[in-house]
Amino acid sequence: MHFISTRGNKEKVIASKAIIKGICDDGGLYVPTYFPNLKDKLNNLVNLSYKKLCFEVLKLFLDDFNEKELMDCINKSYDDKFDNEKIAPTVKIKDNYFLELYHGPTCAFKDMALTLMPLLLEKSLEKNNIKEDIVILTATSGDTGKAALEGFKNLEKIKIIVFFPEDGVSTIQKLQMKSQEGNNTYVVSIKGNFDDAQSSVKSIFNDENFNKKLKQNNYILSSANSINIGRLLPQVVYYFYSYLELVRNKNINLGDKINFVVPTGNFGNILAAYYSKNMGLPINKLICASNENNVLYDFFTTGKYNKNRKLHLTTSPSMDILISSNLERLLFEACNRDDKKVNKLINSLNNKGFYEIDNNMKSNLSSFIGEYATEEEVKENINNIFNKYNYLIDTHTCVAYTSYEKYLKNTKDKTTTVIVSTASPYKFSKDVLNALGKEDNSLDEFQILNTLSKETNTTIPLPIKNLKTAKVLHNRSCEKYQIKKEVENILKV
Questions:
Q1: Distance set, CA 272 to CA 228, 231, 240, 246 (Å)
Q2: I want to staple 173 with a disulfide (CB 3.0 to 4.6 A). Which of 169, 228, 333, 381 is the partner?
Q3: 17: annotated active-site residue
C-alpha cells in the first residue's frame, strides 16, 4: 500500500513515511492508492475484540509494519486507559443507538486515534532511521489538543506544540491542556479563533525556508491533526466495530445497511466513516451534523462551500470551524481522483473563500446528507433525552441527535441508525447543566461537575475529576499572527 497526494505531485510513499511527514510536499493530504475491500470478509470479523479488529483493518493500510510491530502498538494503545472493556461500545437507548467514543483517557473521541498514532509515529521514525527530532505542531478546537498531548507526552525524540483559541474551548478543555504533564509538551493559547490557528499552522508546514531552518537545527515538522493519515486510519476501525456489534447483538443481520450520524467540524470523523463504506461496510447514508456554523450543511445541500461568513461561538466548540481541512480528501474521491480539479477548488477557497462543485461530483456524494442544529434545539434536546430516557449526552452528540431527528422527519427513512457520540457530557458540564434547567452562575467549574453528577445520578469520569487538584503548567499566550514566532521561541531556533 502506498499513499499519494490529493494535489497530484506524483509523490508516492509507504505508510510510515506518510505518518512522519503528515502533509505532502505540495500541501496536499495523503490518501491511500486504493481502498482494500472487506465486504466478503465481514463474517470472519464479527466476533473479534476491538484490538483484533483494529489489527485486521490497519494491516491492510500499514503494510510496511510487520505483524508484531503493529500488534504491539495496538495492545499498548487500547488497554486500561479506557474505562470500558469494549473500548467503543454501541448502546441502545429506546429506539436509538449511540456509538460512545469517549471512554479513553481524555474523555473524547480523539483518544480513539491519538492513543495509537504516537506509537505508530515512534515506530515509523525507527523504521526510517530518522535522526532529527520530530515537532508535532497542532491547532485544536478543544479535544485534539489534550488527546495529542496525552498520547505524545514523554516520548523520546518528539516535541508537541498545541495552539488553541483562548475563547473557543470549554473551561474543562482548557484546564485539561494547561495542566498537561510531560517534558516535551507545550501549550499556547491564541487571541483568535480555531480557523486562525489552523491556517497559521498550515502555513508553517508549507513554509519551505522555515522548514529548512528547522532541519538545520535538527527538527522535522509533523502533525497530529486528522490531516495526518496515521490519525485518520485508526478512526475507520470503530465504524466497523459498531456495525459488527449490532450484528452480534442481533439488532441487524450481516449485510443490512445502516446510517451513521456524525457531529462534524474538521471532517476527519465522518471521512473515516466514508472510508469504511469504500472498504465494503454496508452504509446507506452518512448524515453530516453541523452546529450553527453550518458551512458543511450548505455544501451538501447546494454544492457550494463558502467560508465567507461570521464564525459563531457555540456550546459545541469543537465544531466551531469554517474551514474543514479533511473535506479535501472527499473532494479527491468525488471528482474521481482528478487532482487538477482538486487544485482548482482549493485555490478558489484560498483566494476567494469559496468554491462550487459540478453536478458529477454532487452525484458522487449522494450518500451524504447535511443537517444542522441551532443552539436552542441542542439545549432543548439534551433535556428531552435525559427526561425521556435517563441518558445524558454532551452538546456535540446532541447536535448529531437533533440533526438525525430532522433527517427522520424529512425522509421517513427507517434504516437502523447509529448516532456517533464524541465526548463525555462532563467535558461540557456547564452547558449540559444549563440545558437541564439547573443554571447557577455562582458555581465554579468543579461545583458544576458535582451538581451535574448529583442531579443526573451519573459518575464524573476520573480524568475530569482529577483536574481539581491538577496544577496549571502552561501559561503561554500569543497573538494569532505570532504563531510562527512562538514556535521559534519554544524550539530556540
A1: 12, 10, 10, 19
A2: 169
A3: no
Q: 363-412: per-residue pLDDT in tens? A: 999 999 999 999 999 999 999 999 999 999 999 999 999 999 999 999 99
Going through 373-482 in order, the beta strands assigned E by DSSP cover 417-421, 476-479
Distance CA 431, CA 448 (A): 10
Phi/psi of residue 488, nearest 5 degrees = -60, -45
Give the domain 90-106+230-458 fold: Rossmann fold (3.40.50)
pLDDT band at 51 (very low <50, low <70, confident <90, very high): very high
Cβ-based neighbours of 38, under 8 Å, separated by 6 or more: 45, 57, 60, 240, 279, 280, 281
pLDDT digits (tens, 9 = 90+) for 249-303: 999 999 999 999 999 999 999 999 999 999 999 999 999 999 999 999 999 999 9
- Please give the Cα distance from 424 to 132 (Å, whole number): 37
| The three three-digit cell numbers of residue 240, written as one number | 466497523
The side-by-side arrangement of strands in the sheet containing 90-93 is 90-93, 96-100, 417-421, 258-263, 283-290, 368-372
Choice among 39, 59, 68, 110 that is catalytic: 110
